Amino acid sequence: MKRNVPILVSIILAGVALMVVSTGPGGKTARAEGDYKQDKPYTRENPGPWAGAESSHVPQITYEKMGKGLMVTVKVNHPMDPKKPHYIMWIKLEDGHGKLLGNKELMATDPAATATFELASVPGKLKALQRCNIHGIWMNETDVKLK
Ligand SMILES: [Fe+2]
User: Fold this and answer.
1) How far is the CA of 135 from the centre of ligand 1 (A)?
2) Model confidence pLDDT, tens digit, residues 26-46
């Protein structure tokens, strides 16, 4: 029986190591960004399962001329609550063709869900996307009209 102890210890250690590798050192299964399933971004017109949450999730786009380009501000009127947590994880800006113009990662401890992007040229259309950690990805778009 004593001869089997090292083998038994080895099996237990291997099992523990396998658990750590599969769940991560914190014991929780890591969730990658791609784990979130959503066919297309929610909008004011199509809020998916989150009707009533539009005003706090649809990104607001404002812009002003800056030299030959544009200064764009994207704001989401959403709480940044690190305790729940419930917050906006990122804000992205694209042109009308889906080309990424800017990206800002946010943390739950940030004071507000806002991002400012300085563009060197003026696109015809701006599309803003944001990701709420609970309510998914939301989108808003606007044509750029300068006076
Ligand atoms: Fe939310």
Assistant:
1) 5
2) 333 334 455 567 889 999 999
**Cα of 8 to ligand 1 centre, how many Å?**
49
Report the largest interatomic distance among the alpha carbons of the chain, rounded to a whole angstrom: 88
pLDDT at position 111 over 60? yes
Place of tokens 């706090």: 56
Whole-model pTM over 0.90: no
Query: Ligand 1 center to residue 28 CA distance, Å?
Result: 22
The CA-based dihedral angle spanning residues 64, 65, 67, 70, taken in that order and rounded to the nearest 10 degrees: 70
Return the half-sphere exposure (C-beta side, CA atoms, 13 A cut-off) of residue 109: 0
Answer positive or negative: Cα dihedral of 141, 143, 146, 147: negative
| Phi, then psi, of 5 in degrees rounded to 5 | -60, -50
Instruction: State yes or no: cis peptide before 85, omega within 30 of 0.
Output: yes
Distance 72 CA to ligand 1 centre (A): 23
Report which residue type is found at 81. D
The SS3 of residue 9 is: helix
Q: How many whole angstroms from 23 Cα to the centroid of ligand 1?
A: 26
CA of 79 to the centre of ligand 1 (A): 8
